[in-house]
Amino acid sequence: MSRPSPPDPSPRDQAADYLLHRVNYERVSQSADFTQRFKLDRMRELLHRIGSPESGIPVIHVAGTKGKGSTAAMIAAVLTDAGYRTGLFTSPHFERVEERLMVDGAACSGDELVGLVERVRPAVEAMDRRAEHHGGPDDDRPTYFEVLTAMALDHFARRAVDVAVLEVGLGGRLDSTNVAQTVVSVITSISLDHTAQLGDTLEAIAAEKAGILRPGVPLVSGVTRPAPRAVIRQLARRIGAPMIEAATDFETVVPDSPTADGPFDYYRRGEAEYRGLRLAMPGRHQTANAAVALAVIDELRKIGWNVPESAVRSGLARAVCPGRVEILDARPTVVLDVAHNRASVEALVEVLAERFAGRRKWALFAAAADKDLRGMLDVLLGAFDEVVFTRFLENPRAASPEDLARLAGEQTGRTYPIYPSPAASWAWLTNRVQPDDLICVTGSFFLVTEIRRILKIEPRP
């Protein structure tokens, strides 16, 4: 008996497949010439071909090694609660590409996605044909992220947003988001990540991220490390961008050393502006991100934006980023975190030590082979009772679990369990942990995505 034919893909699924076919992880991650792979002129041409949707949209442009997604979400939530129709473009997504294109906290619909793809596709294919006709390299074709950026700006223009918060994808200077009409620039932090593309020193990475600066446009910087801060200061002076700095112009204070979920105060140039603020996202590192978000709101107020204190409090109290210390209330407790460099793993470990002291802790870890594996493991291994290594399956950049276990063994002299897939490692863990234990899944966005699917966690609407 013949099997029934699978149903034809829906228009939404066809649109998503069209975008997926433009992804080539290996080409992007291994590109020998970052400056050739990412070209702003190509991005500007793509936007021009679809009607220049970026024109007239005020943009808050958020760069940084870590914290930029959380900071962008906080800014967007506050502005939405202040009554502004607010677009938010972030990356990557967990299940559906629509998660990247938000207006007032809601992802674009499947029907909207179809329309966005239909509008951008002729322009993309025209640029593809030109590259093919002239024998140009693949670098002459719009990238996946450029197409998504163009779609986001088109979506925001069609939804008539009052403001768009754009999270940089990679770096800043050559990122496809660096074509918008910025009203406030943001750099949340500088640490080592994407060193093959951005440079292997903090100073080099700072210079790339400071490429988002504009003359006369204020820069809010959460960078406190002396070396990268000096680079950013120098570039801001050269360009003529007023700079507002953490620990100099603004800061958060956590009174009486409460837990990671305790209230905090925000100070602007030594004066308390808000007391007793609370965040939806756990972790003391999130108060630093909140300070940057609040400094951005201060700059918007200076140019006439009306953002009342009630919006500040409610926005911060509800802003969330899935996969950033995402705590699932279960037995055992499960924590999902997309930490993928040493600095973000340090922040994760600090939260777990504060909030879950005394618990037996298990880590499920996988990471991309081009990341700082030794640095992440150096932090991780001492913070967990057991670490299980696996690899994610939906991206070819994964380090092998054998290599991860070998590196870990070199640091501790121990032997670690390894499993060939997230599903196999999850099954092993759930057969051994006790109800009062904690499982933390971390090391890569791709690992967290695959585990969320195993746990059947739905993406946000």
In short:
With 461 residues, this protein is an alpha/beta fold.
Commentary on this structure:
The chain has 461 residues and is α/β, with parallel strands linked by helices. The chain has 17 helices and 16 strands. The protein has helices at 11-20, 25-30, 34-37, 40-49, 68-81, 110-133, 144-158, 195-198, 202-209, 226-239, 285-302, 309-318, 342-355, 373-380, 401-412, 422-430, 445-454; strands spanning 58-63, 86-89, 101-103, 106-107, 163-167, 181-187, 219-221, 243-245, 250-253, 264-268, 271-277, 326-328, 333-336, 361-365, 386-389, 438-442. A hairpin with a 4-residue loop joins strand 12 and strand 13 (333-336). The protein starts with 10 loop residues before the first helix and ends in a 7-residue tail after the last helix. The model is unreliable at 25-32 (pLDDT under 50).
